[in-house]
Amino acid sequence: MSPATIILEEQGLRDGLQTIAVSIPAAQKLSWINQLIGAGLRRIQVTSFVHPRLVPQMADAEELVNALPKRDDVVFSALVLNIKGVERAIASGIRHLAISLSASNTHSLKNANISLEAARAAFKEMVALALQHQVTIRGGIQCAFGCRYEGAISEALVYDLVQHHLDCGVQELALADSTGMGNPLQVKRMVAQVLAKAGATPLALHLHNTENKGYANLCAAAEVGVRQFDTAFGGLGGCPFIKGATGNIATEDTSHMLMQMGYSTGVNISKVAAVSREMEVLLGKPLPGLLYKLADREDIRMT
Ligand code: ZN
Fold first, then answer.
1. Which residue(s) pair with 263 in the sheet?
2. Are the beta carbons of 97 and 79 closer than 8 angstroms?
3. Which residues surround ligand 1, an ion (CB under 5 A)?
4. What is the distance in A from the centroid of ligand 1 to the CA of 228?
C-alpha cells in the first residue's frame, strides 16, 4: 500500500520574510522559490499584496509574481487582506489566493484595523471578486485556537466562521494557530468538527510553534485526517501584530517526522535545508528549525 500523502505548503517566503528587517531582492526570493520547487514543494505562498508601507518586504509582489516559473504542477499563492489586495492580485495574474479573517475581534482590530463583523462582510466581497476572475480561494481563520489579547476563542464561533467561508464559496479552508496557543486535544476535537462540516472541501492547518506545541498539534491533526499543512523553511515566520509570535513549524522538521511516521510528502529535506542555511547566513543568526542543522551531515544517521 502506498503511504498516505501529506501536502506541505511552503510559507517561508511570506510568513517567514514579512518580519525580517533586511530587505531581500526579488531575484533572491525567486532563487529560493526555484530551489524549493527543486526540493519537491508543490504549493508555495510567495508573497502578500499588502500596503508596502506596512510590510516593505512585500513591496515587490507584482514583480515577483510576474517572474514566477511557468509551472502547471505548482500552486503559487498570495495572501491578501483587503479588496485592494484582491484587485492587485488579480491584475498580477496569480491564480490562487489566501484570504482570511481573525476569530478574535481584538486581533482583527490590531492586525487589519477592522472589526470581526466588518471582516465577515469584507471577506465575502473579496471572495466574490476573486471568484469572478476564476481565482481559487483558501479561506482562513486566524487565531482559531486562542488569542493573546482575548484568551480562549469560542469554538462555536470558529465553526460558524467555517460555515461562513463555505457559504462564500471558498475552494479550501484553513485554520491558523496564529499564536501557537492550541493544544493537541483541542486541535483534534476542533479539527474533527471542521472536517465533518467541510465535507469534500480540503482543510489545511497553519501552525506556529510559539509554545513548542506545533509538531504535537500537527500529529494530532494528522491523526484525525488533515492532509495539508503550512510550514516554513528553517521554521521562519511570525505575525508582526501578535505579541511574542514566533515561527511556523519548519518544513524540514515536519517533513522528516511525517516520513518517519509513514507519510509521503515528496520533500527533499537536504534541499530545503540548503535554503535555510542561506537564510541563516543572510540573517547572521540561527533559525528556529532544528533539522536543517543536521540534514547535510553525513556523520549523522537521519532515519
Ligand atoms: Zn502565520
1. none
2. yes
3. 15
4. 15
CA of 129 to the centre of ligand 1 (A): 24
Q: How many domains does the chain have?
A: 1
In angstroms, the CA 116 to CA 114 distance is: 7
Residue type, 257: M
Domain presence at residue 260: no
* Distance from Cα 276 to the centre of ligand 1, integer Å: 18
Owning domain of residue 147: 7-226
Q: In angstroms, what is the span from residue 238 Cα to ligand 1's centroid?
A: 6
- Taking only the tens of pLDDT, the chain with its 303 residues reads 566 999 999 999 998 888 788 899 999 999 999 999 999 999 999 999 999 998 899 999 999 999 999 999 999 999 999 999 999 999 999 999 999 999 999 999 998 899 999 999 999 999 999 999 999 999 999 999 999 999 999 999 999 999 999 999 999 999 999 999 999 999 999 999 999 999 999 999 999 999 999 999 999 999 999 999 999 999 998 765 555 667 999 999 999 999 999 999 999 999 999 999 999 999 888 999 999 998 777 666 676
The answer to whether residue 73 is domain-embedded is yes
Taking the centre of ligand 1 as the mean of its atom positions, its distance from the CA of residue 302, in whole angstroms, is 28
Domain membership of residue 294 (yes or no) is no
Angle at alpha carbon of residue 126, lines to 120 and 128, rounded to 5°: 105
pTM of the predicted model as reported, rounded to 2 decimal places: 0.95
Which residues lie closer than 8 Å to 298 by C-beta, 6 or more apart? none
Cα-to-centroid distance, 213 and ligand 1 (Å): 14
Rg (the chain; Cα; Å): 18
| H or E, element range at 140 | strand 136-142
Q: What's the CATH number where 191 sits? A: 3.20.20.70
**Which residues belong to the active site?**
239
Is there a domain that residue 251 lies in? no
